Amino acid sequence: MSKDIPGDKSAKDTHYATLRRAHRDARRERGEIPTPVQDRRKKTSNADWKAPQLAPDQVLLYGIHTVRAALDNPERQITKLSVTQNALVRLETGPVESLGFPVEIVTPQDLDKLLGPDAIHQGAMLETQPLPVRRLSALTDSPLILVLDQVTDPHNVGAIMRSAVAFDAGALITTMRHSPTESGVMAKSASGALEMIPYIQITNLADALEELHRLGFVSVGLDSEGPAPLEQALSGDKIALVLGAEGKGLRQKTRQTVNALARLDMPGAIKSLNVSNAAAIAMYAASSYLANKA
Questions:
Q1: Which of 216, 231, 241 is nearest to 266 (CA)?
Q2: For the whole prediction, is pTM greater than 0.85?
Q3: Structure confidence by residue, pLDDT tens digits, 52-62
């Protein structure tokens, strides 16, 4: 009679191990046993990581959705794709010889060294040039646009950009100062939306609002102390929603320049929202207004 080989896992052993894991996970969900604390040693070991010095015409994009969207954008000038073998399969690029730019097969660790320990790159990084500069004069056919008054967090701007594409906004306008430039962090937060909507950075916001007024837009600034609910402040055939940074809100000059100030009425105990959430709600209201008016 044969003896069991030490360390050999039979199908029965594997089946029972799976059942034990499922039972343990169910107990954790019910709070009967604690969830293990995440091991953060890897992050602390990378605490001395420094971002690479990029040239003014160099942007590093990363993440499967972000890279795929950039590859599909004919206006995106691509320098090189650095990708793991698995990520290359997921990108479905076809033969790399026909892409028209170099493709380098790398390891996840190679990308970690370039992008840092917190970047969720999913094995794909694209070295590109910034998108072409866009002008306000190209927005004459867009009934809804979004304007940000010194919103500095690239995660927030990326999330707003994603919502703007979802609501078919014609552009996202920000100031050149105190606003994020095109970057991998913003593009990752936008999950591909950076390639789908003009990101226009202007020098003077008050002057830009005046130009939008000449183009037929009614500008509505979101303010927690606005005199009327947003739904009552909307008018005209083209809407420019203007949102300020969290905390300080719209600057005084911006408040004086917009056509109307409005608030988002919320029935709950919390009366303020993250700027990306406020933007999504405001765009929903504006989109509904424009659809009913059409």
A1: 231
A2: no
A3: 777 788 999 99
